[in-house]
């Protein structure tokens, strides 16, 4: 608007006197070097119009750039969202049965083809054992299922046919022979897992489990076996060396709980998880320091 008004004013002035500007070295006879005030004014007007045009283009360009960046950001965030939702983490979940709010058991299968057992998951021990068909002690009658090594094509004895023995704080004592076989949890198979076949048992008669699945550290193992959780991690069947529980306190529910290997089920809790370091003095057990 300012440029247009200036142009009108200068056009009116053109009808009157015409002023001239001469260069310092201009000859009087050389009129080609004469630059009039009107020429300078027109040059200024053209320059201002170009500046105005560039300014408008910059505004439009910035607007387009921002819209383009926003659309790209939205498409990028959508891609990230889909990548996260489509990526399945390696977590093994196993349903548990609540036995009178005393303990929770879940299915674990051993051998090829698999022979399945109701296992008690124990954080206070590290060994895996199940009863053998060769267990003839009186208390062996309490077991519902027994392992028959002759029916597993993948079972192997340890070279020295090592013995296994363990006692628990509730008075339970079991012993037997060590072996190696495939262990399956909800369809996921751990290969070359050491375990014990129990041929002797002294234990309470009111138990509902066939064996014990230890969740402790290496150093707590009575049979010098690698705990199943560590083999899950070493064989890359789980993403993280984590075990988590969800326990339903109502024994009447068909789903008494779940055990998760490799992570947690975020749908079953609120807020954040607080982690605490295990004390170095008791690296055998899941023991933490409490300050009161």
From TrEMBL:
Listed Gene3D superfamilies: Acid Proteases
All residue ranges annotated as the Peptidase A1 domain in the record: 104-292
Keyword set, alphabetical order: Aspartyl protease, Hydrolase, Membrane, Protease, Transmembrane, Transmembrane helix
Acidic residues composition bias: residue spans: 10-25
Recorded family membership: Belongs to the peptidase A1 family.
Record carries keyword Transmembrane: yes
The name this protein goes by in its record: Peptidase A1 domain-containing protein
InterPro entries: Aspartic_peptidase_A1, Aspartic_peptidase_AS, Pepsin-like_dom, PEPTIDASE_A1, Peptidase_aspartic_dom_sf
Molecular function via GO: aspartic-type endopeptidase activity
Keyword Transferase: no
GO biological process: proteolysis
Region annotation (Disordered) ranges: 1-25
Annotated transmembrane regions: 43-66
